[in-house]
Amino acid sequence: MSELTSALKPIPAMAGIGLRAEHYELIATEKPKCGWFEVHTENYFGNGGIPHHYLHRIRKDYPISFHGVGLSLGSVDPVNTKHLQRIKQLIAEYQPGLISEHLSWSSFNGVFTNDLLPFPLTTEFFNHFKDRVNSVQDFLEVSILVENPSTYLRFKHDEIPETDFLNDLAKQTGCGLLLDVNNVFVCATNHDFSAAEYIDNINIEHVKEIHLAGHTKNHFENGSILIDTHNTVVDDLVWSLYQCAIKRTGQIATLIEWDTDLPEFEILLNEASKAQNILDQVNVAAA
Ligand SMILES: [Fe+2]
Predict the structure, then answer these.
(1) Which of 61, 68, 102, 170 has the CB geometry, 3.0–4.6 Å to 206, for a possible disulfide?
(2) What residues flank ion ligand 1 with Cβ within 5 A?
C-alpha cells in the first residue's frame, strides 16, 4: 500500500451530499447531520480562495470524496499529467476517502466538450480504457472508482455488455465501481432494457459507492427520452431500484447528486435522510 493510499480517510456507509458553493457557509457554520460530502475535484484546481477556505473548514468535520468530471478517461488524447498532478496534490492536502471518474471521454485533440460522452463498448476500447485506468492509478498511487454513464445513444458495433465491461475493468485494474442507480434507470428507459437485470449483472464486490440523482423526461416528435439532469428529487422508481441494489451491496456510501437548479440545503438533507432510512432498514433486515 502506498503512503497516499494509507493516508485516505474512509467514507462511511452512510448517505452523503454533493457539496456546492451555495451551501458552503451553512455547512461550515451549522454543521448539519450528514455522513459525508462529495466535491467535484476540478472546482479546487485553483490555489487558495473561497473554495479552499471552505473545503478546509468542512473537511475538519466531515469525510469527503473527490469526484472528477474532467479527466476524460476514455479519450485517445494523451493523459493530461498536469491534471493528474493537481489531483495528486489535492489528495495529499485533503485525504479524500474515495476518488472517482467516469466511463466516458470528453476531449479530442486537446479540445474539451465539457460533457461526458459515450464510446463503443468493444474489445479494442476496453484495452484502451484499461490502460488509461492503470496509468492514472499508477500516477496517483491510489485506486479510483469508475462510474457507469448515462447515455442517449448506442453504437451499432458495441461488442461487450456494459456490465461485463465494468466488471472486467475492475477485475483487471483493481479499480472500484461507482454504481449510479439513476444512470442505470435513465439508460434502461432510453435503450429499453431491464434496470434490475443490469444491477444483478454487476459484480457487487467491486461497488464501493452509489449515486442517486434526479432526471427529467424530454419529449420529441417521435417519442421521449430521459435526461440525467441532476436538477430534481430522486424519482420513486429510482428509489425502488436503489432498494434492490443495496439488498446486494449491504450498507454502502450513497450520494445525493444535485448540480443545477440547486434547491435549499434542507431539500438535499431530506433526500439524504430518505437514503439513510433505506440504508438503516437494510441493517435491521440483516440483523
Ligand atoms: Fe453520478
Answers:
(1) 170
(2) 180, 211
